[in-house]
Amino acid sequence: MKFFSDESVDNRITLFLKKEGFDISSVHENTVGIPDDEVLELAYSLSAILITEDRDFGYLVVQLNKRHKGVVLCRMKNMDIQTRCKLVKETLEKYADEIQGNFTVIASDSVRIRYLA
User: Fold this and answer.
1) CA of 33: how far to CAs of 26, 37, 48, 112, in Å?
2) Burial, 92: exposed, middle or buried (Cβ in 10 Å; 0-12, 13-18, 19+)?
3) What is the DSSP string of 83-106?
4) CA angle 112–49–79, rounded 5-degree value
5) CA 101, CA 75: separation in Å to the nearest integer?
6) E strands along 15-102, which residues?
7) pTM above the 0.85 mark?
8) Could you state, in order of their start, the residue ranges of all structural domains in the chain?
9) What is the β-pairing status of strands 23-26 and 48-52?
10) pLDDT, tens digit, for every residue of 60-114?
11) Across-strand partners of 74?
12) Which CATH class name applies to 2-114?
């Protein structure tokens, strides 16, 4: 499974996931500053699930029905970086089958999946 992180994601999370063996690339490696719809399209073209901290992607995939392979929204600003890294990793592993094609929100106290298919 491939992942693509938006520039809103703390780069330490992306690097942690890469170190843990995840197939992940980032806007930071490609094209910084592109609009959200282009980020979503780039992730789709890579057949990658988008990881973001930007709530606008929820609007794009839920309301506008933009094509995607899945979006994971991280809402954990109040947590230290080590805890955030661990929580993202555990969520991606535990819900691997469910996040594909859906909109997932990782919060400090819950994981919510909105099934879109």
Assistant:
1) 12, 12, 19, 28
2) buried
3) HHHHHHHHHHHHTHHHHTTSEEEE
4) 50
5) 19
6) 23-26, 48-52, 71-75
7) yes
8) 2-114
9) unpaired
10) 999 999 999 999 999 998 899 999 999 999 999 999 999 999 999 999 999 999 9
11) 106
12) alpha beta
